[in-house]
Design brief:
Elements: H1 3-43, H2 48-80, H3 82-102, H4 106-120
Helix pairs in contact: 1-2, 2-3, 2-4, 3-4
Length: about 130
């Protein structure tokens, strides 16, 4: 097999793996958002109006921080390469989602979502 065909095959395989991984990462994070309001309501000790304000902050924290995190992770990707950073980003997402399950306070959940948003900028590397 010519070297160009092998290289093309390797690129195609890498593309399929990264695309599939990116799909499942986005699916998992967005699927989790469906249950987040119920979780916030369950752990909240505040009245309904205050709980709804916290819910808005918690839901919006990750996308807002991903705005800033994306540029940071983009610079790191240019410097160190995308593969290792993408793997570390996926690991950080997994750890943070697990930590969210143990959060017993809205402030802690908000802080975890802020960190998750900052590390959420890493998921754009897969695009």
């Amino acid at each position: 097999m010519p070297e160009a065909a092998v290289t093309r095959q390797a690129h195609r395989r890498d593309f399929v793996v990264v695309s599939t991984t990116q799909f499942f990462l986005a699916f998992a994070l967005n699927f989790m958002l469906v249950f987040l309001p119920f979780y916030v309501h369950r752990i909240s000790t505040l009245e309904e109006a205050a709980t709804l304000r916290w819910l808005g902050l918690i839901m919006g924290a990750a996308p807002a921080m991903a705005t800033f995190g994306s540029t940071f992770w983009g610079r790191l990707t240019d410097r160190f390469g995308p593969k290792g950073l993408f793997e570390r980003g996926m690991l950080s997402h997994a750890v943070l989602v697990i930590l969210m399950g143990f959060a017993t306070d809205l402030r802690l959940l908000f802080a975890i979502r802020v960190v998750q948003g900052f590390f959420g900028g890493i998921s754009t590397i897969g695009l």
